[in-house]
Write a structure and sequence with these properties.
This protein is α/β, with parallel strands linked by helices. It folds into three domains: about 210 residues, no CATH class; about 80 residues, no CATH class; about 120 residues, Ribonuclease Inhibitor (Leucine-rich repeat, LRR (right-handed beta-alpha superhelix)). The chain contains 18 helices and ten strands. The chain has a five-stranded antiparallel sheet with strand order 2-1-3-4-5, covered by helices on one side. β9, α17 and β10 form a beta-alpha-beta unit. α4 packs antiparallel against α5. The longest helix is centred in the middle third of the chain and has 25 residues. The chain is elongated and about 95 Å long. It starts with 7 loop residues before the first helix and ends with a helix.
């Protein structure tokens, strides 16, 4: 008697796939309809949890694609979900249409959890939707992993913070955690491309794991994505066990697969929004800081909306134009290699204008001097290597740094470029050389530097002439001659 070999992928497929002729409602099988109920329940829960996002509000300001009178969308969206349960295909069409229209009224709503759950619904209504969503999930996981592996932010503060939330020492496990998560997501994505049945169980385990991680048991953050992850664990597992175990056989599916797998790369040149490019927890997003007479505002969302700000360069500009008073300035910091930082001022007529870095830091009547955004990656690396950094208040930028002699390395100087508001730098006693000072970036607000008890000479002092506001050099115990120091200070005092 022949023995049956155990094949998890085949067993899952047999359990989850019903015969096509077993119809339950509106042409759907019981299992398809059950998956639809899961999607509708997840979308309903997410909308209710973020209810203020779908209403007309005063703050934070709406970010319309077209300037139209605002209307509420919460009850309309819930109504379309009810219709979907009664007439699945028709309901899906009006739900997606309503969702897209709501984005036109307010781009704050372009959050990945709403978009991805709506896409999952398409898998429940027919086989073409099933095949299409297979490639959506393959792209989602492949690029979620790639974005992490390519992001300097992920392998610094993001992975370390997450490792700490698990009760582990990030100095020992942080890097390993970063690699495991990134490679794990990438592996599930590749399985979904090549052997989708094999990816069914990893899909369920991965998304249930994400839910547990985001719960109060660990990271305790961003609850609005928990319904989406639960939905993906269930519907994704069923979908991967149901699709044909093969590559596309028809032209439209090849085209869909190619588009799904390629378009997220456009994120790195600013062509594709991160919300639809599977940039999930990897960092590497543009951030913005607004300087006004009343103080500083880091643009970050959350609050009653329960979602982060959709950090796209155009939306950060739009938020600044709509919310900041005239005379304010905006710094958009972008860590993507192909995209530079941007600086703006809001004019008296309410229009915003792109300005240079020097103009950003300068003040004028009715216009504040801009405060640059500290680069989190640089701050992490400097702090992790023992550099002491000071703030005047908890939410203020870093204004002073001290590098102790026992932690000094020349490559730390280049990282100071990530501290655009640095006013004081103490290198006293460090084994710094004249050549090292050539690596010091131009710091627009640096006023004083400590070089006491170092081997810096007059040649090194010449390198400091590049610093536009540097007026004080502590040189006692160095090789800088008094005459050269006096000449340096005299030149700096000249207008």
């Amino acid at each position: 008697m022949a023995t049956r070999s155990f094949n998890p992928a085949v067993d899952i497929a047999n359990m989850l796939v019903q015969p096509a002729e077993s119809k339950f409602w509106a042409g759907l099988t019981k299992l398809q309809y059950g998956m639809l109920v899961v999607c509708v329940s997840a979308q309903t829960a997410t909308i209710l949890f973020t209810w203020p996002l779908w209403q007309v509000r005063q703050a934070p300001v709406h970010l319309p694609l077209i300037d139209l009178p605002q209307i509420p969308f919460g009850f309309w969206l819930l109504a379309t979900l009810v219709v979907m349960l009664l007439r699945p295909r028709f309901g899906l069409g009006i739900h997606v249409t309503t969702l897209l229209i709501s984005f036109v009224f307010d781009q704050f709503r372009t959050q990945p959890q709403f978009i991805a759950t709506a896409v999952l619904m398409a898998a429940t209504v027919d086989e073409r939707g099933l095949r299409l969503v297979r490639w959506f999930l393959a792209s989602l996981w492949t690029w979620a992993g790639l974005h992490k592996l390519l992001s300097p932010d992920w392998f610094s503060f993001n992975a370390w913070n997450m490792t700490s939330s698990l009760g582990l020492d990030p100095t020992e496990f942080g890097e390993a955690f970063g690699w495991c998560v990134g490679l794990g997501e990438l592996s599930v994505g590749l399985l979904a491309i090549l052997r989708p049945h094999w990816a069914a169980i990893p899909c369920a385990l991965m998304h249930v794991g994400i839910v547990l991680f985001l719960s109060p048991l660990a990271y305790d953050w961003n609850y609005s994505v928990i319904p989406w992850n639960l939905c993906t664990a269930v519907v994704g597992c069923w979908l991967l066990a149901s699709v044909p175990q093969r590559l596309p056989e028809v032209g439209w599916e090849w085209a869909a697969a190619a588009v799904m797998l390629i378009y997220p790369a456009g994120f790195y040149v600013g062509w594709v929004d991160h919300g639809v490019a599977s940039v999930l927890y990897s960092g590497n997003l543009p951030d913005a800081l607004i300087t006004s007479e009343s103080g500083l505002e880091l643009v970050e969302g959350w609050g009653d909306l329960n979602v982060p700000f959709p950090n796209e360069r155009r939306l950060l500009r739009q938020y600044f134009a709509l919310s900041a008073p005239p005379g304010s300035k905006l710094h958009i910091a972008d860590t993507r290699y192909a995209l530079d930082d941007l600086y703006y001022v809001k004019k008296p007529d309410g229009q915003i204008a792109l300005i240079t870095l020097d103009e950003f830091h300068a003040d004028a009547p009715g216009v504040v001097a801009g405060v640059g955004l500290d680069d989190q990656h640089s701050v992490f690396l400097l702090g992790n290597r023992g550099v002491v950094m000071l703030k005047r208040t908890e939410h203020a930028p870093i204004y002073a740094a001290r590098i102790e002699p026992d932690v000094y390395r020349a490559d730390l100087l280049r990282l100071l470029a990530g501290l655009p508001n640095l006013e004081q730098l103490d290198l006293s006693g460090c084994a710094i050389t004249d050549a090292d000072l050539q690596q010091l970036p131009i710091m627009p607000k640096l006023e004083g530097i400590g070089l006491a008890d170092t081997k810096i000479s007059d040649a090194g002092l010449n390198a400091l002439l590049r610093q536009p506001k540097l007026t004080y050099v502590e040189s006692e115990g160095s090789l800088i001659t008094p005459a050269r120091l006096e000449d340096f200070e005299r030149k700096r005092m000249q207008p």
